[in-house]
Amino acid sequence: MSKTYYDPADLRKFGNITEWSEELGTKFFDYYNSVFQDGALTAREKSLIALAVSHTEKCPYCIDAYSKDGLQRGITKEEMMEAVHVGAAIKSGAVLVHGVQMMNKVNKLDG
Amino acid sequence: MTKLKTQSLHKRESELANSNRQIEILSNGIFKSGELPKFKDKISEIGHFPLRPKKLEILQINVGYMCNQVCEHCHVDAGPDRKEIMTKKTMQQCLEVIKNTGAHTLDLTGGAPEMNPNFRWFVEEASKAGIKDFIVRSNLTIIRANKKYYDLPYFFKKHNIHVVSSMPHWTRGKTDKQRGEGVFDQSIKALQDLNAIGYGMPNSRLKLDLVYNPSGAFLPGDQTSMEKDFKKALLEDFNIQFHNLFAITNLPISRFLDYLIASENYEDYMYSLVEAYNPSAVTNVMCTNTISVSWDGWLYDCDFNQMLDLKVASKVKHISDYNEDLLNDRNIVISQHCYGCTAGAGSSCQGTVA
After folding, report:
1. A46 touching chain B per CB within 8 A
2. Does residue B276 belong to the interface with chain A, where contact is any CB pair within 8 Å?
3. Staple partner for B301: which of A34, B16, B258, B287, CB 3.0–4.6 Å?
4. The CATH number, out of the four listed (3.20.20, 3.30.1120, 1.10.287, 3.30.565), of the domain defined by the range B15-342
């Protein structure tokens, strides 16, 4: 067994998940590939969304994949970092907005 | 003033200046162990081995490896310290071929071809042959490098030259990282000079195309999308126009191979190339319609094979013995670097092929 849970080389093997469930794996990849085509949003915009979500999900494979994808699309470092900040802002906002719940509770108990 | 980033591998006496060492690296490791399939096996699967030429369309002549830039990923290992320059005698031999070739495109490259002291004479003579498409691959900064080159746009225009120039990105940082400090600003000025006399303008007969190749260990994105992004950014930021963008994959040879190894990206990059292998690109790879001539007159299947010193597998090996019919009856020499031309939408000096 590997000594670490994550091996960067495993990303290359992602496609192999179809080997143990071809129908579901194929459906997933068909869906996945369709999602990232140009649509109401451009593939470039979707790549930046994927990069932000990769960070909020803390998925190292996804971060590797969408950092590279961004470079291939000519996305700049500044654009990539702004996208990560969007993810970070939502994450921190999601924590902070619970402060209202805390305030409600404190006010009810000790208001 | 453009600041040079490095010296050539040759000047540094790097082991990768030796083409045999490069071929050894490309043949061993993950390819020898069978972890990745060899290019020969891959094209055998679709019945394309041995790879054979189609009709010759492009005669590409490298007039010398001297250049005013030392770009990080240059497959030629060009730079100011390279002294390999085509002589007038070899140019005369090339002219005889140009007059009689069936190719519709003549493509002059380097180095910076304009630095060859006989460049203008050669262009003037070659343009008399009436070749349909006469390309000069200009690095742009040469136009601004010295006042003796300032009139190059007018010279190009006079001879109806199709100018093809490298531009790795529409931002200063990415361009200068790859091509040297100050290259972006000088390239922008040169493009504005070319635009000013009609090059690259909509409906202009003066063709100006840009070549994009990635600034690091990744493959180029979709050529059409990249062209759209380049056009928008260059027009908005600098009022620059051009016709087409060619997206070219970096092949794992010379300085790019050196970079891949030094940055520990070599294996991942080779995986990327093999995973992106596109069988439909194989039928149109540029070696099937191109002959590449080196500064000293030797003949190759492509500019990349020239840098690896893999001469054509033909009785005719030199421009002095040129015979198009004999040359077209040959097997194309391949190695693992060829994956670079079959990845994704394919890659050639004229952009995507699939």
Report:
1. no
2. no
3. B287
4. 3.20.20
Question: How much is the average pLDDT of A71-92?
Answer: 96
Per-domain boundaries in chain B: 15-342
Contacts with B56 (C-beta within 8 Å, 6 or more apart), sequence order:
B101, B102, B103, B289, B290, B291, B324, B327, B328
CB contact under 8 A, A76 and B174: yes
In 3D space, the residue among B348, B345, B340, B346 whose CA is nearest the CA of residue B39 turns out to be B340
Instruction: Report the candidate in B69, B62, B55, B48 with the shortest Cα–Cα distance to residue B3.
Output: B69
Provide the CA B56 distance to its chain's centre, in angstroms: 18
Spell out which residues of chain A touch residue B221, defining contact as CB-CB under 8 Å.
72-74
Query: What's the confidence (pLDDT) of residue B1?
Result: 46
What is the helix (H) or strand (E) element at residue B22, kind and residue range?
helix B19-27
ipTM: 0.81
Rounded Cα–Cα distance for residues B188 and B349 (Å): 22
Residues of A in contact with B35 (CB under 8 A): none
CB contact under 8 A, B216 and A71: yes
**What are the CA-CA distances from residue A103 to residues A96, A107, B284, B334 (Å)?**
11, 6, 68, 71
Determine the topology of domain A16-110 in CATH.
AhpD-like (1.20.1290)
Chain A residues touching B275 at Cβ < 8 A: 12
